[in-house]
Amino acid sequence: xxxxxxxxxxxxxxxxxELPTGQTQLFIGLHLIHxxxxxxxxxxxxxMGVPVRFPGRTFATVDHIIPTDRQSRPLADTLAExxxxxxxxxxxxxxxxxxxxxxxxxxxxxxxxxxxxxxxPGMTIACGDSHTSTxxxxxxxxxxxxxxxxxxxLATQCLTMARPKVRRIDVxxxxxxxxxxxxxxxxxxRRLGVKGGVGYAYEYAGPVxxxxxxxxxxxxxxxxxxxxxxxxxxxxxxxxxxxxxxxxFAPAGxxxxxxxxxWRSVASDADASYDDRVELDGAALAPSVTxxxxxxxxxxxxxxxxxxxDAPADERPGLAEAFDFMELKAGEPIAGTPIDVAFIGxxxxxxxxxxxxxxxxxxxxxxxxxxRTFVVPGSQAVARQAKEEGLDEVFxxxxxxxxEAGCSMCLAMNPDKLVGREICASSSNRNFKGRxxxxxxxxxxxxPAMVAAAALKGEVCDVREIL
Length: 467
Ligand code: SF4
Hints:
Blueprint lengths: L5 H8 L1 E4 L5 E4 L2 E4 L5 H10 L9 E4 L16 H17 L2 E3 L9 H7 L8 E4 L13 E4 L2 H10 L1 E4 L3 E8 L8 H12 L7 E6 L1 H5 L2 H9 L8 E4 L3 H7 L9 H12 L10 E6 L6 E3 L7 E3 L15 H11 L14 E4 L1 H4 L2 H11 L9 E4 L4 H9 L2 H7 L25 E4 L15 E4 L2 H10 L5 H4 L1
Parallel strand pairs: 3-4, 3-6, 4-5, 6-7, 9-10, 9-12, 10-11, 15-16, 15-17, 17-18
Antiparallel strand pairs: 1-2, 2-8, 13-14
This protein binds iron/sulfur cluster (SF4).
The site of iron/sulfur cluster has 14 residues, from helix 4 and helix 12.
């Protein structure tokens, strides 16, 4: 009999019961909530007269609507202030811990979970947010859920889910200098497609993932959902365990050692069987840039944009739509595309290591006049660390706009928005039409270092030439 994957071990350990539908009633170890998808869930609970079942397993933060210029209360945007007040009231009523800006622990939900040690290997994690897959970097099984499921988790701490298949993705070799985790996940999505992961959990493995820091793995797992996967994870190892040691919500003392035993035990067995296996040569990767309107439409920075004639017939309409919207031309290089805005931040790439790499680039020059810039730490803790290291000053001296923590221009639910047809070099995760606040705004996804390089040059360029 072959061994079991992490997905199967964690799934089985959290199964309350199998339902006649073939789905599983799954216990959720950690529930993370924020101001956008939780108010309706709390309202439904109130209507039903049902209390929150395990308030100690739910943690809240404010991230999407929070302004990044001035966060003092009341917030200037009255709707944002109302959402903040609603979250405060709901959390206080239910006894849920909420991380507001006053707490010093506020930040993007997928940044604070790991940095506070809430996210741990072997957990089932749910959050009313697509990019909950991020937490899989520790070997957790983490799902984004909808508002009615947020209600279900609040009421029962359980979800009804279908067990996904597992695709193992081995990334071999060693990444070249200037090639980051963002290039790895963009290459995976380009290869497998934005719907390639439907019905699957992605298990990321191989020498490139093993050599990555937890923060790099968070970037990879974050975008699993962009490849259609239900979740994505990396098997827990010393890297993940060392990261968790001493974190505020991680077990301490003997409890930590006990937890480590469980954490190691959930890693996929060496002889685990998978529903599918894929291999990617990490050594062959160059910095990636998206050129289109979904994260699967990317090229290496030194590559030309695809030609319609080379694409399968069924893909040509989608490519044509993307070229039309982006006003880019098939067969031309992506390097040299002028940008108007540079955004460094988000739950994909708003961590301290991201800011350090971008700052390395920022030290080499000045932002090209006319380029609007946003450097937005993923959390208050990231901002504090960056200030301690003087990174805020590095960015400011180079002409970047240093901001407070939040989602900012990733989704533009706050005042940080593209205007008109602006093109944004962005370290976020979605390049959909209208994603960054202007219905006609255009987004080019890339690593934070690549964004910084584009800001200095005023156009897409190869960060390897600067570093
Ligand atoms: S940074 Fe973007 S993707 Fe991440 S939680 Fe915020 S809005 Fe969602």
